[in-house]
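The following block was generated as part of the benchmark described in Methods. Ligand: adenosine-5'-triphosphate.
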Amino acid sequence: MFLKRLVLVNFRNLEDLSWNPHRGINIITGDNAQGKTNLLEAINFCTSGASFRTSREREMVRQGADFLKINSLMEKNGSQYEISVEMAKDSKLEFKLNGLKQVKNKLFQPGMSVSFTPSDLDLVRGNPAGRRRWMDAELCCFEARYIYNMQNYNRVLTQKNNLLREKIKTSGYNEILETFNTQLADYGSRIIHARLSQLGRLSSMLKNVYRDITSGKEDIYFKYFSSIPLVDKLNLNAIKKSFLDTMMEKNSEEKFKRQSLVGPHRDDLNFFVNNMDARHFCSRGQQRSIVLALKISVINVYRLEYGEYPVLLMDDVLLELDESRQAGMTGLFELPLQVFITSTALPENFPADYRAVKITNGQLT
Ligand SMILES: Nc1ncnc2c1ncn2[C@@H]1O[C@H](COP(=O)(O)OP(=O)(O)OP(=O)(O)O)[C@@H](O)[C@H]1O
């Protein structure tokens, strides 16, 4: 996937911007608050239909303006197409593909872009909910029916929790609870199964990428911690049975605590570098390297799924690594991959060719 042209009107402080990015590495420099992240966010939006910064889309319209326009020319597997997004005052976003209106969900598939922003550092050091969100949104999103299973799982989970919280038990309480448990085991085991199989595929890629970044000095692995004993991790029926058995065992505790204690919504993923738990023992630079290695592994997974690398967006995260770790990424920069990197200054010894643009007060130079 390559972004060939980007035209923005009233996108945050980017009032009127037109750009034909380089096919390889683009470094966007500029002082603070000039519009570097805004530019990355616009690329993120026209490649995913979502912002890495906000879910309140109206915030993206330049203050004082009454509409926003993003127009992009993309190339995917050799074909070109135009995606445009418009939002007029008080109306919803409108998406077009090659000039024709298109529903957002049909326009954007996963795997068009991967972003790495400072908030992604929480993937290592933050709470388990962030890691579960990452597995759901970035790692497993393309698995058939994953989102369908997630939506149904969450719906039943809410119903079950509401039932457990009821003070006066309705008639048929135990039967209803059992029905919810059966449904949760069905959807939940598929979620856990998909997570484990995608993690299995990611594992060796992550090890290799991390070794490259650290010039072979550090090793990484991860562990999926489940609220369900997982004996046969790749056997869906075994996961489902274990899920049902565990819910039976925890039945009294769930009733006492009035909440659902078992399932993928309680699971976690932890990273270990040189056998040490990365949450507690890794430096900031190591944590940054872990997230970077994860993102690079994910773009490799997308390449296997879709036949082409996604666009990679890195906001204020790459050039903070020391030169030896940046040098460890030479292999990445040799791939047919378009990368956008923001930084306040140009790097001194960047390990690959790049084109640089500077942004000042929302204008590219
Ligand atoms: N809707 C909006 N309308 C107008 N300006 C906005 C809007 N949203 C954000 N801005 C402004 O855009 C400016 C640039 O923000 P951006 O986050 O892109 O800066 P940056 O160049 O990445 O800076 P830094 O190096 O500090 O991260 C900020 O001054 C911000 O207040």
